[in-house]
Amino acid sequence: MKNKMDMNNSGYEIILLKFNRLLTKIVAMDKKLTFNVGGFDIRSTDIHLIDTIGRFPNANVTEIAKHLGVTKGAVSQKLTVLEKKGFLRRYKDSTNAKEVIVDLTDLGWEAFRFHENHHQQVDGEIFKFLAASSQENIDFLEELMDIFDHMMNRYLDQIK
């Protein structure tokens, strides 16, 4: 059995090729995928913004942008659209008037639950795989995802 140091570059290249192929598919899916909630068609990026707001109650725009890995400007633009459709509301923080807090409305929570159910159905195979994995493998995958995340951040910073 080969250890990590003995693995030739082609093994690493296969992993990166698979990662790049996955990214390409995710981008293609993101462009095509829309959900209908409450009579409104919402794009994948919108539903993920709603999901983030639901997972991080009372988050401000800066925190939401950080969780999503996008700019505050991008979040603000999407928030305006989703607020007009009735998915969320924004209000001033009572302890800091400079901060704007974002909460989901009933329609927003409906979209949040719809998204959760969607992922339960679509991602079942991944959940099953992870549930059967050792903590060591989970830790490894989490570290690998962090490395990919940092790599993509560096790449995005270079192309700005």
From TrEMBL:
Residues annotated as domain HTH marR-type: 9-153
PROSITE patterns: HTH_MARR_2
Annotated GO MF terms: DNA binding; DNA-binding transcription factor activity
CDD domains: HTH_ARSR (cd00090)
One Pfam family from the record: MarR
SMART domains noted in UniProt: HTH_MARR
InterPro entries tied to this protein: ArsR-like_HTH, HTH_MarR-typ, Metal_resp_HTH_trans_reg, WH-like_DNA-bd_sf, WH_DNA-bd_sf
Transmembrane segments: none
Keywords: DNA-binding, Transcription, Transcription regulation
Signal peptide: none
Cross-referenced PANTHER family: HTH-TYPE TRANSCRIPTIONAL REGULATOR PCHR (PTHR35790)
Full protein name: Transcriptional regulator, MarR family
Organism: Maledivibacter halophilus
Lineage: Bacteria, Bacillati, Bacillota, Clostridia, Peptostreptococcales
